[in-house]
User: Fold these one by one.
Assistant:
Number 1:
Amino acid sequence: MAEKLNEFMKNMLLIRLFVRELKKERRKIFLTIAGIAWGTLTIILLLSFGQGLSTQMLRGQKGLGNNIVLMFGGQTSMEYKGLPQGRPIRFLDDDVTLLENSIPEIDNITAEYDQWGTVYKYNDKAVTERIRGVSSMAYDDMRSHFPQKGGRFLNNNDMKERRRVIFIGWELKKQLFESEDAVGKTILMNDIPFTVVGVLQKKMQMGMYGGPDANCAVIPASTFRGIFSNYYLSRIIYQVNDIDKSKYVEQQVRRVLSRKKQYHPDDNNTLHFWDTIENAKQTRIAFTGITIFLGVIGAMTLIIASVGVANIMYVTVKKRTREIGIKRAIGAKKSLIKTQFITEALLIDLVGGFIGASISWLIIKAVQSIPQESADFGKNMALQILTNPEFDWTVAISTGIILGLVGLLSGFFPARKAAQVDPMVALHYE
Amino acid sequence: MIRMEKIRKIYSTGKVDVEALRGVNLHIKKGDFVTVIGPSGSGKSTLMNIMGCLDKPTTGDYILNGTNIKNLNDNQLSELRNHEIGFVFQNFNLLPYASAYENVEMPLLFAGVGGKKRKQKVEAILNKVGLSDRMDHRPNELSGGQKQRVAIARALVNDPNIILADEPTGNLDSHSGREIMELFVNLWQEGHTIVMITHDPRAKEYTDNFVNITDGKILREELVA
């Protein structure tokens, strides 16, 4: 303990002397510290904005759905069992049940009907938009259809009893109700009364089909069939329990349906898949690449700054040759001289790093506080994506590691040179 | 205390080899006050550097307090310089950014002497050389004589066995020179072993133990005027 304290005191004196000496080179030190601060600033900002960009992109993709695959019917391109090619493949209600029962990797699955040109009316307002009918109450999780406070999504009873209940997008709600509360109110959908049970929570949606969810409404599939008498489904959406199995599940779906619909199992034109899981993976990979790229640019800046630190340390070694000689003559070991120079370089780096980190933290906070008009997702998507830099532990750790490396780099070589000073020569050095 | 046997030192400066010491034998006993004289280029400084463990002889043996320094590595030599030897230089060689106190404190720091003890020692030794009122002054705030006192205090603070002084009065006016010389004599009388390179004629007032070195050889070991 006492030894440690003594060691500390020793370093304190050396640092104190160092600081005194640096006062003589204030301008140079200032520039060096500014260089390190700038490098740190650059690296943190690049990484933080990269991180924010990636998170926002993934969030935007989540707006379409949470690990879902959308499946559309196509047409056969191969003859099979005497049946001609060019035969359309369309989905029926019982296809959903069949897939659900025969493929255990599918967690949730829903039929979806889709109809354009529906007229919604409330009081004296009328809007023409899209309507969707869905068969699973897990649709909320699958397609990110979470209700705003006070409302709910469709439930099993709605489905079973073909209730005339409706879950509406927030844009649609705004057009019909403006600021009025919508839940519990009755609207007319193609002149049929429906009770609003929930309004869709605002979300960022990057991928879409037909149109944004904000302008759309959802009703039970059973109710939908009763009104529009669609025979075929527009699509099937399913969610797999293991995101690494989406390709496998796709093959299973092709196989299962090929028997029922009598098409060649290798005919890939019969079914079309929109695999959002794959998309998300690719986005993640792309953004990992971008983050690395940004990090490397930042690191380069920092390394250039560290060359500055190394340079000033070299000059210091030269200027202090005699001082080093004196210390060596009165008993300082090489290791101590080395430690001293590395400590000094690290000190410059740490001060610069701290200043850079503080400034970048302020910038990030400032950018984050830019009001995003908390609505109008989609319209201001670019702003949305840019104004969400994230300073998180990955950024902090990468910056820390790079700063540390840079510090050692800028201290090590000058320190080695300092330790090699020959005291005998140095004492006669003027 | 110091035994040198057939010390040779050859400097290789590229093509030419310079033989600075050509077989020096020297015995210094504890409590001696030895003065080394000789023209410049005679090898005095080389002898001092070897004696002070800043340099190693090319051949020959240097035994300091029973240790042959030939067998020591750089760290051990550093420790030896720290504990056994106190240096005093012509140009003082004080750290310019450190106060008198801090300059004297430095060897104790390298030796790992603890805080309280260190303070006591530094204060006592500065008091002894008559600088107790100048402790917080930097070298540029001190006169030449005062600087040399700080240097002497620094040399003494770790209780070395031997004090090596290289022209300690060379940069001082005659008055301060005399004072410094008297300080050395006092130290000698207290029992310190002192080896001093000097041209100062006053030296012979205090000691008759001369080593005259010329062309890398010791001429006579006594009474050279």
Number 2:
Amino acid sequence: MDQILEQARSIYEGEIDFQGQRLAELLQNLLLSISGVIAFLVGFTTQNIIHSLYIGLGGTALTFLIVVPPWPWYNQKAEAFLPPKKHKAASTDRRDLKGIDVQGLKLG
Amino acid sequence: MHSTLTRVQNVFGFFTSVACAVAAVIALSVVLSPQTPSASLALKNVQVVKGRPHYYSTKKEEYAHVRFDLDTDLTSLFNWNTKQIFMYITATYPSSSPSTIPPSEVVVWDAIIPSDYAPFHPNTYIHPTSKSMTKIKKNPKSKKTAKAYPHGKSPGIVKLNDQKPKYQVTDISGKIASRSNATLSLHWNVQPWVGALVWTNRKPYGRWQGLKGGLDKFAFPALKSSETIKKEDLRTETGGERNRGSPA
């Protein structure tokens, strides 16, 4: 039961990794800007604003389709979690933090 | 961008920015399309009679009934961002004391001329057909195919002969007879799909030429007794707006 709930949560939230987030934002900006430019140019050359409207809306729909679902190409470089602590869970022992990188400084 | 919901919000947010930017560019692009509007407007007949503003009124006022000929070529006002133009003809006449009171401007006739791409609307103007075309008029299906311009022409062409007014002219004082220095003039509003509403320009702006013609000077005649004029001659035209509230 918990596993099914976990799967449902994962589908609903659709989490992607950090590199995937960068890629998604880049694709969003590129696709929407390009579809806006194409919409204007096609409408202007055919002198029909309805072409602009539908190309703009179509480009937006395509962007939604490409950016919103957690496609596999957004989960290529998953960041691994730290290994679980072996001793007491609530320990504040500095030895547990050895080797951890905090803004370029190694702890320990 | 880590979850589906934030991605939906981000894409939609950026879409609104792009849509706004494209709309702004479209609105500005109309200055590139050249405009050369021209019109010839001539008074056909004007009669002044006494009448009542409504059936139970005890006050009698003078009403002027203006008939006119109009031949316009406003096709260049229809660029890719024009939804429709609202055309109207006004009668302007000076006040009793022109130094203190500005002249009065009264609308005599108006029409909504939609672009060919605009969806059908029952209020839009239907151009009168020539006599050879009356067969089409009788066809009940022709209501939706009826156009705001003559058969075979394009939007912006209006050719009217001896056109009845839509509205009679009366003054706030109730006296309109024998006033001189009146002018009949054509005006328009260009209503775009996106952008600014543009009024008549008689002066050129960049690639937009000013309106050529569309003016006629006249004087209101003396009052005629209503017995000497047939009632049929004083009828007014009813526009498509009479369909308001009834099924289209």
